[in-house]
């Protein structure tokens, strides 16, 4: 099996920004958001269930599901959010496994925002967190998603806390500085994960988590 590094982080922390950089250097990316998007778009059973549950208010003019509106509704209703997650996650995890099977790079990056919420921590060999202070997250998502300060704060309050994420992570990219710094992390972590994957494939790992923690602060 390929060596799996799970990449997690709160909304707007920079997961896509980081995974795009790993992609550029040839690392296979398995992105649960992209998988979810494809399931909603192409799995007719799933899309029908969503349409039945939420009705016309989440549909585009052409009757397709408007993911932005869907996200808006589920972030305002915990039961609806859990319903949707429970509907999608078994399929997302199945597709994740399919994609992992066919990865070509010596390690792969599994982008999974809900790693903690869905209790998937043990499904990866290593956990890499993109960490950003909440204030910065709020600023970024207001700008990117054109939402209010209140909405941004509400979305973040529904997610796992920054502290909980830090506590389960092996490695951290602190994404609060100039974006150019990200390339240094990418360079370093690619060497590091290639090394760990080689050891893993030679079955030489005894207690890698204990010996190689790279939380930089
Ligand atoms: P989501 O959880 O919503 O999918 P994400 O964790 O994938 O978000 P990105 O989409 O990578 O986060 O980043 C969120 C926004 O913040 C984007 O508009 C991105 O360009 C910007 N951004 C990311 N990193 C930085 C940074 N270091 N400085 C300034 N802006 C940044």
Provide an overview of this structure.
- There is one protein chain.
- The protein has helices at residues 15-24, 32-42, 44-54, 67-74, 78-101, 134-145, 149-158, 162-168, 182-201, 208-211; strands at residues 3-8, 28-31, 107-111, 126-131, 171-174.
- By secondary structure, the protein is of the alpha/beta class.
- The protein folds into 2 domains: 1-27 and 107-211, Rossmann fold (3-Layer(aba) Sandwich); 36-104, no CATH class.
- Strands 2-3-1-4-5 form a 5-stranded parallel sheet, with helices on both faces.
- The site of adenosine-5'-triphosphate (ATP) has 14 residues, from helix 1 and helix 6.
- Residues 9, 11-17, 33, 113, 140, 144, 175, 179 line the site of adenosine-5'-triphosphate.
Short synopsis of the structure:
By secondary structure, this protein is an alpha/beta fold. It has 10 helices and 5 strands; from the N terminus they run βαβααααββαααβαα.
How big a fraction of the residues is strand?
Answer: 5-15%
The CATH H-level superfamily of the largest domain is P-loop containing nucleotide triphosphate hydrolases
Which ions, cofactors or small ligands are bound in this entry? adenosine-5'-triphosphate
- N-to-C span: 32 Å
H/E element order: EHEHHHHEEHHHEHH
Mean pLDDT: 90
Give me the secondary-structure topology.
Blueprint (H helix, E strand, L loop, with lengths): L2 E6 L6 H10 L3 E4 H11 L1 H11 L12 H8 L3 H24 L5 E5 L14 E6 L2 H12 L3 H10 L3 H7 L2 E4 L7 H20 L6 H4 L6
Parallel strand pairs: 1-3, 1-4, 2-3, 4-5
Helix pairs in contact: 2-3, 2-5, 6-7
The structure holds adenosine-5'-triphosphate (ATP).
């Amino acid at each position: 099996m390929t060596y799996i590094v799970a990449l997690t982080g709160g909304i707007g922390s920079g997961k896509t920004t980081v995974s795009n950089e790993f992609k550029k250097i040839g690392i296979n990316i398995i992105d649960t958001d992209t998988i979810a998007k494809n399931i909603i778009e192409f799995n007719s059973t799933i899309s029908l269930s969503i349409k039945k549950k939420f009705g016309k208010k989440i549909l585009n003019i052409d009757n397709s599901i408007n993911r932005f509106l869907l996200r808006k509704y589920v972030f305002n209703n915990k039961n609806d959010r859990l319903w949707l997650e429970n509907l999608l996650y078994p399929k997302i995890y199945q597709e994740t496994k399919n994609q992992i099977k066919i990865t070509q790079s010596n390690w792969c990056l599994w982008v999974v925002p809900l790693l903690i919420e869905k209790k998937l921590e043990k499904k990866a060999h290593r956990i890499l967190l993109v960490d950003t202070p909440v204030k910065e997250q709020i600023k970024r998502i207001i700008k990117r998603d054109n939402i209010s300060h209140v909405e941004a704060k509400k979305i973040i309050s529904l997610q796992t806390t920054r502290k909980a994420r830090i506590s389960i992570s092996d490695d951290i990219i602190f994404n609060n500085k100039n974006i150019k710094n990200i390339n240094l992390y990418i360079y370093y972590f690619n060497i590091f994960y290639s090394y760990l994957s080689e050891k893993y494939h030679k079955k030489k790992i005894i207690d890698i988590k204990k010996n190689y923690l790279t939380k930089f602060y």
